[in-house]
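dude i think i finally got it to work??
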Amino acid sequence: MNQKMVCLDVDGTIVDFDGHMYPEVRAEIMNVMEAGHHVLIATGRAFHATLPIIRDIGLHSGYSVCSNGGVSLRLDPDLEEGFEIVARSTFDPSSVLDALRERIPTAKFAIEDVDGNYLSTERFQDFSFGVQAKGVTFEELEEATAVRLVVFSQDSSTQEFASAIEALGLQGITYSVGYNAWLDVAGAGVTKASGLDALRQVLHIDEADTVAIGDGFNDVEMLEWAGRGVAMGQAPREVKRVADEVTGTVHDGGLATVLRTLL
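look at this
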């Protein structure tokens, strides 16, 4: 079997929605690595929130894509912190913020800035940040340089939120809507797939030898990009539709099932 580049989403794939990682999943990830394949994390989480997962698995070298492609890490145990940022994509969030606030006035906003800090309005805090968000004014958010913009609306359903975003016709950005009226915004063309493809070239892996497993709307581009795209069993219909195959749910150990086929 050719050496593969195996790209794994975190939430809903490696860990369940309570953040629990099943022992069989951890074991099969290590087995795939020991078989000589490259295993990369590809997540919407900021790198602060990704590092605990990396350490829990036992990854010490290789690469990871964080913030939906906005940040790429190289893992190296010889580095002082065990990692370094090798790529970062940023954008000016001001026009997006203005348009969204006008359309969804009750929305909460948070930005991951170039230093990995989170700036937020209205005590907006989420585990995906990995660090405590710093409360700032809306105007301060507009002045920041963003890697990732997160928007949350408690007053809208996911479909209503998606429709509102689409109606705005925002230019120069990439976005995905999550399960619960949650919007992730990145710079134009920045997705998990774009970050992974840059690393694929660094690793000299053929496109046909890429494997990606995920369950969310922010995984769509990654699943389409991969030579073998696998959707988790609990993924929305729209995500399953773009995948080459569907495995079991996160609670059924769906990821472990796929990884065993690489051994």
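The radius of gyration is 18 Å.
im so relieved honestly
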